[in-house]
Amino acid sequence: MGFLLTKMLAVFGDKEHKVIIVGLDNAGKTTILYQFLTKEAVHTSPTIGSNVEEIIVRKTHFLVWDIGGQDSLRASWNSYFGKTEIVIVVVDSTDRERLTLTKEELHLMLAHEDLQRAAVLVLANKQDMQGSMTAKEISQCLTLDSITTHSWHVQACCALTGEGLPASLDWMRSRVVAN
Ligand code: G3D
């Protein structure tokens, strides 16, 4: 618990950049978090707590919170927003039916006062699956072009193989280094 507190205080001390991973259940959030940790270029500290991990990308430290996506948990997402610099929105690219729900959640989040300075990374996950939507299609469905208040980026990926994830980490790093 003391260690967790130390890590949380580090965020407020601006030594680590806070990232939250959101998305509907089954989108691949947890798989992505742990795939980040196994990439060769990424060195990690031991697990800090349940689904909270430190990731270091070329000396830039991120504290990444994987927030559950089930109906009952989505209402509490905003309790994690404070000090967040990057919001990762994970999309199951085969789940066409629920993309509208993701769109609504995304635009609702961006209106929240605690996220006014956060950058948004949309991960179009499960690209290995037949019939998956492309990153461009997902971008259009989520109306990302209409977002002018936040820096955003969409990246196609496959959490199972890790494809697309190093590029995502590079983009995240470029965002926090730029600020
Ligand atoms: P969540 O944390 O968003 O709820 P999980 O999602 O990370 O638990 O992943 C949900 C399921 O999707 C898991 O399968 C996981 O293996 C699978 N998955 C995640 N990413 C990919 C991907 O890129 N491609 C494919 N094909 N599957 C993926 P199970 O079977 O364990 O439920």
**Largest sheet: spatial strand order:** 2-3-4-1-5-6-7
CATH topology: Rossmann fold
Number of strands: 7
Question: How much helicity do the residues have?
Answer: 25-40%
The molecules bound to the chains, other than polymers, are: guanosine-3'-monophosphate-5'-diphosphate
How much of the residues is beta strand, in percent? 15-25%
CATH superfamily: P-loop containing nucleotide triphosphate hydrolases
How does this model look, in words?
Helices cover 32% and strands 24% of the residues. The protein is α/β, with parallel strands linked by helices. The protein has a single domain, classed as P-loop containing nucleotide triphosphate hydrolases (Rossmann fold). The protein has a seven-stranded mixed beta sheet with strand order 2-3-4-1-5-6-7, with helices on both faces.
Q: In terms of topology, how is this protein built?
A:
Elements: H1 2-12, E1 17-22, H2 29-38, E2 42-44, E3 52-57, E4 60-66, H3 71-74, E5 84-92, H4 99-110, E6 119-125, H5 135-141, E7 152-156, H6 165-178
Parallel strand pairs: 1-4, 1-5, 5-6, 6-7
Antiparallel strand pairs: 2-3, 3-4
This protein binds guanosine-3'-monophosphate-5'-diphosphate.
